[in-house]
Amino acid sequence: MDINGHASALASQLSSLDLAAREEDSHGRKTMPARAATHAHVGMNPNRIRPTEDIFNPEDPHIREDIVRMIMQYLTDEGYNASQMTIQDEANVKWHEREENTNETRRLKKAILDGEWAEVDKICSKPVFKNQKSFLFAVYKQQYLEYIEHREMQKAFTFLQKRLKPLEQHQKTPIEFKDLCYLLTTKSIHDAPSFKNWEGIAQGRDKLVEQFQSMLEVENSVKDGSVYVPPNRLLNLLRQAVAYQIECSRYHPKISPIVDTLLQDFSPFVIPNATRTIMQGHRGNVKCAEFVGSDGRSIISGSSDNTLRVWDTETGNCLHILEGHSSRIWDVSSNEAGTTVASASGDSTVKIWDIKRSKASCRATLGGHAGDVYTVKYHPTSNHVVSGGYDKIVRLHDLNTGQVAKTFSGHQLAVSKVILNPIGNLIISGSKDNTIKFWDLVSGVCIRTITSHLGEVTSVAMNSNGTLLLSSSKDNSNRLWDVRMTRPLRKLKGHQNTSKNFIRAGFAHNSLLVGGSEDGLVYIWDQESGDILQKLHGHEAMVYNAVWSPKQSMFVSSSDDRTVRTWYYDGKSFDETKQKKKKKVLLPIMIRRGLKCASYSLDQHN
Predict the structure, then answer these.
(1) Where along the sequence do coiled-coil regions lie (predicted)?
(2) Are residue 403 and residue 365 in the same domain, yes or no?
């Protein structure tokens, strides 16, 4: 076999081994692209039942006790016996109150069966029963029918007026109260259509007790902790909840995942590598875009055409066009629920928009700034927004009053970006004066300033637990900071950020960083190493920003080409890239005969 044949054969045998090696790092762990390849895109099911709906009533005493019992079981299983006993002691007080209610229900049943209506009235006046209007109507109806049966018509008439009339809306049928009135003029209860099957006083009392028992589920009430709790009930419910989150995810794992936290919803690790939708309609460059609310089912974008647009994340259709600003939109933000969005504009205002109605509208216009407002952000827990702009001042706006609640002064040049930490007690602002400032929300005092940037700061972002800060600056770099120590961890390079535009970056998943660039690409970096993992091609002009949605597991980017794009992980695209890598394996081949060394590329022989 000649040297070309040896090269081809050896390359064929080793190319797969080389690729496998590339999928593991020096510690034998899967690389990020390999981890991302373990998921398949299946899309979102728009008809899935959402956990925010009232699947059960958390105020229901039975539900509350079920939760307590599951917690007690878990604590016992894990050996937290002292904690379990403390909870049980507190729960016993509640159960004792429930036991008293159970005794009352037994007394009430006996009083009904014995026809002791004075005792029935006394018991029904207690809080546990007096709000059960439908049952009270049934009780009073039985008493009334007994008056009619005994021909005590005057008592019946008085009772009808005093007890039954106020509860008329709780009658079983639209004509029941009318027939009760009619009984005052008949010779027999059976003459009224609603009571033609009346079986007598005794049978009526029995049916009333059955109705009462069914309504309150007395026989199933909890007593002395004797209710059976299936083994590992809490853990099983948590597993079901995680399985539901995985099932509702846009990507399904090819192998069963191991979830390492229950404090956050499941979010598959993917590295978007392809455009999913292109949203067109803006007549000017799109300065900003972000997912609306925590679920990200829609996207809001702001443009130099002075308008905002709301897009459907799944289809890319435009849902609303928001008009009202008289200058370009620099930044947008949405509240956690996704019901309202805020926009920062070059017309010196911030506008609050209601986007959940069939026709979206401006709810409020917030003033106070002198010059362009470059940035706006919703407070994570309260009804406030924070804004900053050309006038160098950060402002906190109260949305209940529409007034400026507090101002934060200290920057020497325009404020380019403001955010809040996850618990909402700190404002972080980046500025054209090359600094980042941390402000105490309550006192308004600047408690820390970072001055290490060599260019204007164009954006700041914080991770989900508030320990890391990402900054972008006009020296072609993004920097990752340890917030607690206020020290830089690493510098991210490769993108372009030098012109007058606000090129921004942010966190994606727990391991990735993503940002825009003046070269028209979306860059994805490994948070741990700072390496570039992916460059996303598609936009035809500079990309201002790219934002990640944990629920949607996608990026949205905004660009100078007047479009908004969403990016997702396409397994087919990954497989094609994999095949290309296989074909480019270079193999050094030692040829002892002649002591020569040659390097061959498979591309040369195809």
Answers:
(1) none
(2) yes
Handedness of CA 223, 228, 232, 238 (dihedral sign): negative
Residues 337, 342, 344: CA angle, nearest 5 degrees: 155
- CA separation for the pair 160, 166 (Å, rounded): 9
- Number of domains within the chain: 2
d(CA 442, CA 299): 32
Residue in the structure block whose two tokens are 């007395």: 218
Q: How far apart are CA 86 and CA 82, in angstroms?
A: 6
The range of the structural domain enclosing residue 364 comes to 274-568
Instruction: Please check whether residue 194 lies inside any domain of the structure.
Output: no
Contacts of 313 (CB under 8 A, 6+ apart): 291, 296, 297, 298, 299, 549, 552, 554, 566
366/478 same-domain check: yes
Measure the CA angle with vertex 226, ends 130 and 72; round to 5°: 95
C-alpha 431/C-alpha 425 separation (Å) is 20
Listing DSSP states for 94-135 in one string gives: HHHHHHHHHHHHHHHHHHHHHT-HHHHHHHHTSHHHHT-HHH
What is the distance between the alpha carbons of residues 509 and 256, in angstroms, rounded to a whole number?
19
Dihedrals φ, ψ of 76, to 5°?
-65, -45
Instruction: Give CA angle at 129 (123, 134), nearest 5°.
Output: 120
Q: Whole-angstrom Cα distance, residue 251 to residue 234? A: 26
Report if residue 76 sits inside a domain.
Answer: no
User: 3-class DSSP state for residue 327?
Assistant: coil
Is the same domain home to 326 and 262?
no
**Residue 468 confidence (pLDDT) above 50:** yes
Residues 503 and 592 in one domain: no
Round to whole Å and give the CA distance between 46 and 48: 6
The string of pLDDT tens digits covering residues 278-334 is 999 999 999 999 999 999 999 999 999 999 999 999 999 999 999 999 999 999 999
Residue written as token pair 């700034």:
369
User: Is the pTM of the predicted complex or chain greater than 0.85?
Assistant: no
Give yes or no: residues 429 and 519 share one domain: yes
Would you tell me how many other CB atoms lie within 10 Å of the CB of residue 552?
22
The DSSP call for residue 456 is: -
Contact 340, 363 (CB under 8 A): yes
Cβ-contact 284, 328 below 8 angstroms: yes
Cα of first residue to Cα of last residue in the chain, in angstroms, is 17
pLDDT for 232-289, tens place per residue? 899 999 999 888 888 888 877 777 778 888 888 887 778 899 999 999 999 999 999 9
Identity of the residue numbered 503:
I
Q: Looking at 208-212, 383-387, 447-451, which range is the least confident one?
A: 208-212
Whether 492 and 594 share a structural domain: no
The mean per-residue pLDDT over the stretch 473-482 comes to: 92
pLDDT at 412 > cutoff 70: yes
Q: Give the other-Cβ count within 10 Å of 14's Cβ.
A: 13
**Could you tell me if 254 and 278 lie in one domain?**
no
Report the 3 state secondary structure along 533-588. Answer: EEEECCCCCCEEEEEEECCCCEEEEEECCCEEEEEECCHHHHHHHHHHHHHCCEEE
Would you tell me how many other CB atoms lie within 10 Å of the CB of residue 486?
14
Q: Which residue carries 């980042």 as its tokens?
A: 436
Half-sphere exposure of 464 (CA within 13 A, CB side): 13
Query: What 3-state DSSP class applies to 260?
Result: coil
Cβ atoms of 402 and 394 closer than 8 Å: no
Task: Pull the structure tokens for residue 168.
Answer: 């008329």
